[in-house]
Amino acid sequence: MALVLSTAAVVSCSSGSHAAVAPVPTAAERRAAPPAALGTTAVVTVDPTADHSLHAAAAEAALHAVGDALGPFSDRPVSLGRAPDGRFLTRIEVHAISVSKWPRAARSTATQVRTARSLAQRTISAIRRYRDVDVATAAGYVKVDEVHYVNAAAVSDGRVLDPEHPEALMYAVGPNRPTLVGAMYLAPGRGHGPQIGGPLTSWHYHLFGASVCMIGGGFPVALAGEHGRCVLGVPEVRSPEMLHVWIRNPKGTFDADMEAAM
Predict the structure, then answer these.
(1) What DSSP element (H or E) covers 235?
(2) How far apart (Å, rounded) are the C-alpha atoms in residues 177 and 161?
(3) Which of 57, 106, 134, 243 has the largest count of CB atoms under 10 Å?
């Protein structure tokens, strides 16, 4: 499987199928376009019996396409300017964009810090019941990749930042059983997540670099098929905004970086 980025994006699978050809933005277009518009429309035919994880090989190549479109990333946050509504956009990973009402250097007030700590404490206390992954699956959390378990009912219930019903749980892969490491809140649709902790609780979204199939409006499970069709879910080119709450993470309770918590 290879991904070529020159004047067009082409994805091919080991099965020999080829994706639709889509134009790749020029350097000038990339600078002018909002980040959400940078995902290409390249698609891959999906075998319904195959691995539907976004972390399958073809999807990983699509994520690399985002990196190519946005340019090199050296593990340091890069300002992308401001969205039309004034929010500050910062590239924080190869394909992740932070969205905040405040610039990155801003500090939360004492009240905002207390509010953020309360959210973290209530969330961590509530998810302890899911330390056994079987309890989580019995409660409706469905495994969508090696780390994330998403509850479609929680995604669509209209509640935001509800510690009793987080939209997703995160587990580290262990030698015997998965270990619960945190929860993830999702904002509805393309809406903004509430920054109740000020700059400390900035939300972020991921660009997929291809049309992917989203379950419950909350998480990608596969690359879309021909003409953007999905066996499961609906096609999207970016995730909703999300906020992590880690049980333990040396980079911070709400940090977007997952590796440090694993």
Answers:
(1) strand 234-238
(2) 28
(3) 243
Which pairing describes strands 2-5 and 168-172: parallel, antiparallel, or unpaired?
unpaired
- The span from the CA of 112 to the CA of 141, in Å, is 30
Residue 180 dihedral angles phi and psi, to the nearest 5°:
-65, 125
Show me where the domains of the chain are located. 2-261
* pLDDT of 28: 40
Q: Which residues pair with 219 in a beta bridge?
A: 215
The amino acid present at 100, given as its one-letter code, is: S
Distance separating alpha carbons of residues 183 and 151, to the nearest angstrom: 11
The neighbouring-strand residues paired with 68 are none
- Kindly report the pTM of this predicted structure: 0.77
Residue whose pair of structure tokens reads 């904002």 in the numeric block: 187
Q: What's the rounded Cα separation, in Å, for the pair 151 and 146? A: 15
Mapped onto helix, strand or coil, the DSSP state of residue 135 is helix
Encoding tokens for residue 95? 């394909």
User: In this predicted structure, what is the pLDDT of residue 86?
Assistant: 96
Q: Using an 8 Å Cβ cutoff, are 55 and 63 in contact?
A: no
Tokens describing residue 122: 């209530």
Residues of the chain with pLDDT under 50: 1-50
DSSP annotation of 107 reads: -
Report the alpha-carbon distance of residue 151 to residue 256 in Å, rounded. 20
